[in-house]
Design goal:
The protein has six helices and nine strands. By secondary structure, it is α+β, with helices and mostly antiparallel strands. A seven-stranded mixed barrel has the order 1-2-6-9-8-7-5. A hairpin with a 2-residue loop joins strand 1 and strand 2. The protein is extended and about 65 Å long.
């Protein structure tokens, strides 16, 4: 069983529930070491004084913050000074408000943790909060400190258990107008292109099932490593298609829609269901 990465109490109103946090995800990325090409010599990184070229012991390193202005001026901060103002470790997650879950823009979501009651005797109030949050589709907003960092968090229900979603603070989210070099025309799209694009989206719609999606790049990396280990020839994939020109958009949409229809007909022959490509929203 996984170990809790944080323990404390989850509080709402006067209710306090001892809980633990568990990571809800794991990293499957293939990690590489670095070698000098043509040798088996590992590449190691050293902390080197750029003026003297000599290696510096970690204990002799302080941190510096660039004060700007282009003059190369820094404010030097010692580790002890950072420790003195560090927030420490939260002993509790105090929910200060509840918000409609649908009002939280997904851009603010960071990482998900499962919350578990820290003992069977706390399962009842835990389940009560999970059921109440699910019933009203709300998330509890709280802040807490973990591993020397303060987090904003949303606590929500997820199929009978509680999940804690760390959130970005407002000043950490970039506005599109300040970030993107090219923005779409604000004039509303209309006409044949919009009708066909909407119909294409409807024809390609499907229920969300995360099991249908896989990290194909990591799979190819593993296949590459295995093939090289076995001495097999490496085949490079074809280049992706080029960008669609505006003058070709209507034609490409039509071809896409025809392809989606053909795929739907093949699926219909297998299942006996005729897909609705009328463009009308599905009945619920």
């Amino acid at each position: 069983m996984a170990r809790a990465i944080w323990t404390g109490s989850l509080n709402f109103g006067l209710v306090s529930i001892p809980v633990g946090l568990y990571s809800a995800s794991e990293d499957h990325t293939v990690h590489f070491h670095q070698f000098q090409r043509g040798t088996t010599d590992r590449i190691r990184y050293q902390r080197v004084n750029e003026r003297t070229g000599k290696e510096v012991d970690y204990a002799d390193i302080a941190k510096g913050s660039d004060i700007g202005g282009g003059g190369g001026d820094f404010v030097i901060v010692e580790p002890e000074e950072l420790d003195s103002i560090a927030p420490g470790r939260s002993r509790s997650i105090d929910i200060t408000s509840f918000v409609d879950l649908d009002e939280i823009d997904p851009v603010y979501f960071q990482k998900t943790y499962w919350i578990a009651p820290d003992g069977e005797q706390y399962a009842h109030p835990y389940a009560l909060l999970a059921e109440a949050l699910a019933r009203v589709n709300r998330a509890g907003i709280a802040s807490f400190v973990m591993r020397g960092r303060e987090y904003l968090a949303a606590i929500r229900a997820d199929e009978g258990v509680l999940a804690l979603q760390t959130l970005l603070f407002a000043d950490e989210v970039r506005k599109p107008a300040d970030t993107l070099d090219t923005l779409p025309d604000r004039a509303p799209a209309r006409g044949k292109e919009l009708e066909m694009a909407t119909t294409l989206i409807e024809s390609m719609s499907a229920p969300w099932d995360p099991e249908n999606y896989h990290d194909t790049y990591t799979e190819r990396v593993k296949q590459l490593i295995d093939a090289k280990r076995r001495g097999h020839e490496i085949v490079t994939e074809a280049e992706p298609p080029g960008p669609t020109e505006t003058s070709d958009l209507l034609e490409v949409l039509q071809r896409s829609l025809d392809s989606a229809r053909d795929g739907g007909r093949r699926a219909q022959r297998r299942t006996g269901d005729e897909p609705d490509l009328s463009g009308a929203p599905p009945h619920r």
